[in-house]
Specification:
2% of the residues lie in helices and 46% in strands. The chain has 3 domains: 110 residues; 356 residues, Methylamine Dehydrogenase, Chain H; 76 residues, Immunoglobulin-like (Sandwich), CATH 2.60.40. It has 3 helices and 45 strands. The longest helix is centred in the middle third of the chain and has 5 residues. With 580 residues, it is an all-beta fold. Strand 22 and strand 23 form a beta hairpin. 47% of the residues are buried.
Length: 580
């Protein structure tokens, strides 16, 4: 595919009327889109309407061993590549032998048209993502390269600010009006320039680290920054520089607990360097973990399905050549390894993020493209049992770019994949080991090569829905379309403000047709939901009258066998197993 387009339809010739599943395949053979069509006997047109991104190696297939589709016409000899207008070329067929070049199996007379226009693309290829504004590195304080980005919302005013890491320091940008952003502050590097810089925020302070020798961790009061005029560029000064490490590759912060984890430092074998930042201007070293070098990580207060670690501070570590690891950091003086994971074709486990219901981890590998010839690959890891993480599968992008940083918001994964730009994946089918690309913004349309260039990171957490993208040479503000922003979050339970009610027990458990919910208290009304392993509602009751015995029998005969979580409107939960 040379550019974004829509595969409107194809013709088929069927030997008999039947239901047939037709699928669009990624270069790795994963199903990107599929639909079952009722195809009549003889020749007919199959209306697809599938939007395709630029890339090579796509496949169109009928998902059947003997689909009874053909075009028996020996006069339709062709040569590959076979051009389909200006949009695409057919480069080959899975048919072998004497019929390989005699006729198409199974699809012919392809109808391809332009993809729907995205408002204000700015000349950048995009799909379901709109350009708001862009500035080049020289207009944002210069430097040899851009790198990381992060964001902050000023309490009280709702003003949105983005921070753009660069080789020579950090640029502060007011992006409240994303179509007219203002660069107004510059924090110089603490020591020397560096390719790497990383930024996180806690309690209205920015914490900034770099691979520059002796740099330490700069702490910036963001209220002081917000008070600066935004029609001029002011020099920003760090309120504090923490010096218990020199260089660091990254800084990870658990905003729920006020602990920062510097990783890839010159201390503790490059593992976790744990700092108490609850008083941001008085950071204190409180712990470490030197079991492995950590390249990036995510720290959470665990509230996922593994009851053994409920309420504990857990850190998901992406450890480069050593793969993926999970540690229990509840006791900062005695951090313990829970489990580790490697996988086939491990090059360098770079970074990742967990789903909002903490049921899945998504991770990427920075070297598998160059080492093994893979297209951009996103691994889906089942972490329902933290002691035994399992790879469920992986998503293969149609592009060959190297992956870098990615973050989860609701049902979507926002990826910065170097030369292919921002990619947005839907997570709703993660439990089956598949993801779906639903949007992209190509910051570097000149190439999708597996090279270290292009977009470094993105920040998708602004309440406005706008997304910041940092690249080696530019800083972008973009906006996904409303279909993406407004899709209900089916990956984690919604917040419910109904009256509090605690589940004491579920009997029987495992269950088959009916369960009894036993509650604390009498005569109240509660919202109850049953969530499946993906975090989707299998069944719900918005208002249940609780009898005087504080127990209620409910029918679950229409819920498929499996492992579930039952939640109440107060946020209490209990596991439920349905077996038949």
């Amino acid at each position: 595919m040379y550019e974004s387009c829509v595969l409107n339809s194809v013709k088929v010739f069927a030997n008999g009327e039947d239901q047939r599943a037709i699928a669009l395949l990624s270069p790795g053979g994963d199903i990107l889109q599929a639909e079952v069509f009722s195809i009549p006997d003889g020749e007919s047109v199959v209306e697809l309407g599938w939007t395709l991104s630029p890339g090579s190696g796509y496949g169109l297939s009928c998902l059947a061993q003997n689909p009874q589709l053909w075009r028996d016409d020996l006069n339709s000899t062709l040569n590959y590549p076979y051009a389909i207008g200006d949009y695409a070329s057919i480069t080959g067929s899975s048919v072998n032998g004497e019929n390989e070049f005699s006729y198409y199996y199974f699809f012919y007379d392809w109808n391809i048209g332009p993809a729907p226009a995205t408002v204000n693309s700015g000349g950048y290829p995009c799909d379901h993502v709109e350009l708001m504004d862009v500035a080049n590195l020289n207009d944002l304080g210069g430097g040899a390269n851009g790198n990381d980005c992060w964001g902050w919302v000023e309490p009280g005013t709702g003003r949105e600010f983005a921070f753009f890491g660069k080789s020579n320091g950090t640029a502060f940008i007011d992006v409240t009006d994303a179509t007219n952003m203002h660069y107004f502050g510059e924090l110089p590097t603490a020591t020397t320039p560096s390719l790497w810089r990383d930024i996180k925020v806690y309690n209205n302070h920015a914490f900034i680290v770099s691979e520059a020798g002796g740099h330490g961790m700069q702490v910036v009061d963001l209220f002081d920054v917000a008070a600066l005029p935004n029609d001029a560029v002011s020099t920003v000064e760090a309120a504090v520089v923490y010096g218990q490490f020199g260089n660091a590759h990254n800084i990870v912060i658990n905003e729920e607990t006020g602990y920062a984890y510097a990783v890839g430092t010159n201390t503790f074998n490059g593992g976790l360097h744990v700092v108490d930042i609850q008083d941001p201007l008085n950071p204190v070293l409180v712990g470490s973990y030197d079991g492995a070098y950590t390249h990036d990580a995510q720290a959470v207060v665990y509230n996922g399905p593994d009851a053994d670690y409920a309420g504990k501070e857990v850190v998901f570590c992406f450890n480069g050549y050593s793969g993926f690891a999970i540690v229990n950091a509840e006791d900062k003086s005695d951090i313990q390894l829970i489990s580790s994971l490697t996988y086939d074709q491990l090059g360098y486990t770079h970074q990742g993020w967990v789903s909002e219901n903490q049921r899945f981890a998504f991770l990427n590998d920075e070297l598998d493209e160059s080492n093994f010839g893979n297209n951009t690959r996103t691994y889906i890891v089942d972490i329902a049992d933290l002691d035994n993480p399992l790879v469920l599968g992986y998503f293969t992008s149609p592009t060959t770019a190297i992956d870098h940083n990615m973050y989860v918001v609701g049902s979507h994964l926002y990826q910065s994949n170097y030369l292919s730009g921002l990619r947005i994946l839907n997570l709703n089918e993660a439990a089956s080991g598949t993801l779906e690309q639903v949007g992209y913004f190509d910051t570097n349309p000149e190439s999708d090569a597996a090279q270290f260039d292009g977009t470094w990171s993105n920040y998708p957490f602004f309440p406005s829905g706008n997304v910041a993208i940092s690249t080696f040479t530019h800083f972008f503000m973009v906006r996904p379309d409303e279909d993406i922003l407004n899709e209900p979050n089916s990956v984690s339970p919604p917040v419910d403000v109904n009256e509090s009610l605690d589940v004491l027990s579920i009997q029987p458990n495992p269950a088959a047709e009916e369960i009894q919910l036993r509650f604390e208290g009498n005569g109240r009304v509660a919202g109850v939901a049953i969530w499946d392993a993906m975090g989707r509602i299998a069944k719900r009751w918005d208002a249940l009258p609780i009898p005087s015995a504080a127990a209620l029998n409910v029918d679950v005969s229409d819920v498929e066998p499996g492992v579930y979580v039952v939640t109440t409107s107060s946020g209490q939960s209990a596991r439920l197993v349905i077996q038949r």
